[in-house]
Hints:
- With 324 residues, the protein is α/β, with parallel strands linked by helices.
- The chain contains 10 helices and 15 strands.
- The strands form 3 sheets. It has a 6-stranded parallel beta sheet with strand order 12-11-10-13-14-15, with helices on both faces.
- Helix 1 runs antiparallel to helix 3, helix 5 (182-193) crosses helix 10 (305-323) and helix 6 packs parallel to helix 7.
- The two termini are 29 Å apart.
Amino acid sequence: MEFNQSNNVIYSALEWSRQGIGSAIATVVDTWGSAPRPVGSQLAISGEGGMVGSVSGGCVEGAVIFEAIESLKDGLPRILEYGVSDEEAFSVGLGCGGSIRILVEPIGNFLTQKTLEKLLKKIESRKPVAYVVNVENWSNCLVEVDKKYKQRFDNDQSGFDGLEFITIHNPPLRMAIIGGVHIAQALAKVARVSGFDVLLIDPRESFANSLRFPDVEISHLWPDKALEIFDPDQRTAIVTLTHDPKIDDPAIIQGLKSPCFYIGCLGSSGTHAKRIQRLQNVGFSNDEISRINGPVGLKISAKSPAEIAVSIMGQIIQTVRKKI
């Protein structure tokens, strides 16, 4: 089973608990100043000191692991705070003007294995779900998208509502890459490292195969058919890389019909001008066509396939962060 950062934390904590090792989940609930990880970041800790995930990029993990193991002894959740005003600030690496509050929940009487199983099932089925915990009495529940939390889901924004802390678990961002070319090999790697689920689409099996793209899901359907099945949503990016209108254009058309947050197309300005003309000829308006990023990528003077992949990934991240 393939895991992204979100469900890997939940899965690891659940497995350690099932094995009898014991586990806890630490969640960033507040930050100020230069704290290195955003609210909602999570770390799974085993009773033997193992860890998956991150709450500070390495600054406070050691202290959090110690507290998590202590929580397994008494079974009680707790909120920790580290910052420049604490005597411990320098020892945990926050001597640069930042502070952080972290919720630690041992798996047991309050946060149960059953709750984690339900949460993991929702995440694996790509259903948005929020874990809500009352930090006064430690009661908790899972909530799907509703009016109360809709804005938090839309903005990927975990945080406090009064005494309740809400951890948002949205489906992973996705990327459909059209064309198994050299740039796609680099882009698939950097996208996966960035937390995206990746689908490579190319009807040419000599370009798209497991030797060239190990550990990447591959479709050999024509792009329009593959994307119909993929069903791009608001958390999907589409990138076309073949230069061949027979392959790229069906994907672009399908993307323009979808609510995907990003469409990027490789090619020169001249190539893109011809692309625009073809799309106009089949009835797309200038406003619709303006959704396309072409030529694709940030302007960083990229030359090699790896550099071009970085420029594309940078533009995608820039786009999604502006939207949330």
